[in-house]
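Subject: Sanity check before I submit

Could someone independently write out the structure tokens for this chain? I want to compare against mine line by line before I put it in a report. The sequence has 302 residues.
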Amino acid sequence: MKPTLLVLAAGMGSRYGSLKQIDPVGPSGETIIDYSIYDAIRAGFGKVVFIIRKSFEQDFKDIFISKLQPHIQVEYVFQEIDKVPGGLVVSPERTKPWGTAHAVLMAKDIIHEPFAVINGDDFYGSGAFQTMADYLNSLNADTQTQYSLVGYQVGNTMSDHGSVSRGVCQEDENELLVSVTERTNIQYTEGKIAYQEAEGKPVFLNPETLVSMNFWGFTPEYFKQTEAIFSDFVKANIDSLKAEFYIPFAIDNLITNAKASVKVLRSDAKWFGVTYKEDKPLVIEKLAQLIQAGIYPAKLWK
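---
Independent answer below. Compare away.
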């Protein structure tokens, strides 16, 4: 059975200022999501599932569904604030979604095979999709809680137009993930990559430091494991207007309690995305270079 690609596309780009997931960046109007799906198809993925918000369903269908259906099976589900464990009532003042791990749970009824999770506004590179597909295809009945993460070198993930947040990975001697520590305000300082400590002192990072760009690999067992964690999380944060249930939080819980392991899959690809509006021209330029090099056709979908 071919693996599935799950695309997180429910978040509005607050720093970007618009719904950046559907912003064209390719020469024929392609979005970053288009390139990810194209790479996934080449790597052997058999289905794509989108996590979106009900509020922009029609825009999303108009842009993606018709052009993708001839090439790959397409489905979508909604991430909405009130989709929480039964009996719990979310504050009517809450407007923020419950985070990436909650978004993944929205697909539990339509994904029954190994699957990868990506952000809809990130360009990951074709090699990363092949690496992930190969790993997911290697799993069997005895490896259902052996998950995976594509790790990128932090130097290949920076923006020239502002600070970024990255999950810094720590792994053991077997290339199994030990932890993902979220570092905010990572930027170039004195010509080097650094984040700020609480007191404002810069902490410099080796450009080859592995970070998570939210490219995960799971089996359906992950849904069952994280439902219980999310239930406890919501009970503890039901009155919060901003608390979010992130994938690294769920993963840390599973690793700490020895319920799962996560293989770190390395990628030397250059990640890029549109964190800020000023990033868009550079994304367009980089894609044009990849097209010129023959990595992608000038028109993805024919």
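---
OP: Matches mine. For the report I'm noting this point. The first helix runs from residue 32 to 43.
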